[in-house]
Design brief:
Blueprint (H helix, E strand, L loop, with lengths): L11 H5 L1 H12 L4 H21 L8 H13 L19 H20 L39 H11 L4 H12 L4 H5 L6 E2 L4 E4 L10 E4 L2 H15 L23 H15 L8 H12 L4 H8 L4 H11 L1 H25 L2
């Protein structure tokens, strides 16, 4: 399993602060995923720059300083979409992003506690903390919102399909595999030619490519299998080498592994053309898992298919599908109907 070092050139404040550098290096040595290391680095850089503007050292930051940082997160503009405002945060940063920033700061101060540099954690652990009560215990500063994933309506889905049909063969296969196997972006881009068993229509998603280091084998459809065969013939025209399945076909990066950023740009253009702005690289995974819930799959089956370590994550798709509520409503209405019919029959005797 590869060890991904923090990209120090992208987080100069963290690179220049010994404690932050030690903590981020420790996370890298834990063999966390590249995306996790990048998220931790960005969050650490953001916090260090903020306390730097306040003229406060991280070691001496108080709960009031962390509250000021929270206010900044909730009121700053989203750099990608400065005019977008989210209901849950009241500003450009989503609840999930704010939560991530505070979680990294909390973990960093836990590290300071363990090293004996501080006696308290200014972020606190909230009411759900597993930590024992004591001087480090504090109430939560920010309430986590647990939102259901977004999936497109049938009209939006047809608009997406209409645009996707005009995409190059490689992109169409990537979209199909993303849905069939409920793949995360990193898992899709990490697929290699040896990970696919076309005879049995199976994909192997390697542990080092997953979010939680759980390897799994999942099936894909016959229609996607046909696309895969066509793409392999197309791929051989410019590369016969084994390795990454999806390669760049641009003149500048020809035959090099397709990057996450390139794929995100492709999906962003599809969403823009289809006029479905919320469509993202993760949408097809959400849609697949919701469809499996609607089809009556057991929660443990969906969890195994998705590679979830916790059933709490899988429950989101059960809720989103409305399956349990629809079943209860149907059963309840049947009982009410029978009861009313019996009453009516007694009246009309």
């Amino acid at each position: 399993m590869p060890c991904f070092e923090p990209r120090w050139d992208r987080c100069p404040a963290a690179a220049g602060y010994e404690l932050a550098r030690r903590w981020l290096t420790m996370q890298a040595n834990r063999m966390l995923a590249r995306n996790t290391i990048d998220s931790y680095s960005r969050s650490m850089e953001d916090f260090l720059r903020f306390v730097g503007r306040l003229g406060v050292s991280p070691e001496s930051a108080t709960r009031e300083h962390v509250a000021e940082y929270l206010r900044d997160l909730l009121t700053r503009e989203n750099p990608a979409q400065p005019k977008t405002f989210y209901i849950e945060s009241g500003a450009g940063l989503s609840n999930a992003t704010v939560q991530l920033r505070l979680t990294v700061v909390r973990l960093f101060y836990d590290f300071m506690l363990e090293e004996g540099i501080r006696r308290t954690n200014p972020v606190g652990h909230g009411n759900s903390s597993k930590h024992t009560a004591g001087p480090t215990r504090a109430g939560t500063l920010f309430r986590r919102h647990r939102k259901l994933p977004w999936i497109p309506s049938e009209e939006q889905w047809q608009a997406i399909l209409s645009v996707a049909r005009r995409e190059p063969l490689r992109n169409r296969l990537m979209l199909a595999l993303s849905y069939d196997a409920a793949l995360r972006r990193q898992e899709l881009l990490g697929l290699e030619t040896v990970d696919i068993d076309p005879a049995h229509r199976l994909l192997r998603i390697r542990a080092e490519r997953t979010k939680n280091c759980l390897e799994r084998v999942v099936p894909y459809s016959e229609a996607t299998s046909r696309l895969y065969g066509l793409y392999l013939s197309h791929r051989r025209e410019f590369s016969r080498e084994r390795g990454n399945l999806f390669l760049s076909e641009s003149n500048r990066n020809s035959r090099r592994p397709l990057t996450i950023w390139t794929w995100s740009k492709v999906v962003r253009e599809i969403s823009k053309t289809a006029e479905v702005p919320r469509f993202s690289t993760h949408t097809l995974r959400h849609l697949c898992l919701t469809d499996l819930a609607r089809a009556g799959w057991d929660i443990h089956e969906i969890a195994a298919f998705a590679g979830h370590r916790s059933l709490a994550s899988t429950l989101l798709y059960i809720h989103l599908s409305g399956r349990d509520l629809a079943k209860k409503l149907s059963e309840g209405m049947t009982q009410i109907h029978a009861w009313r019919s019996q009453q009516l029959s007694e009246v009309l005797r």
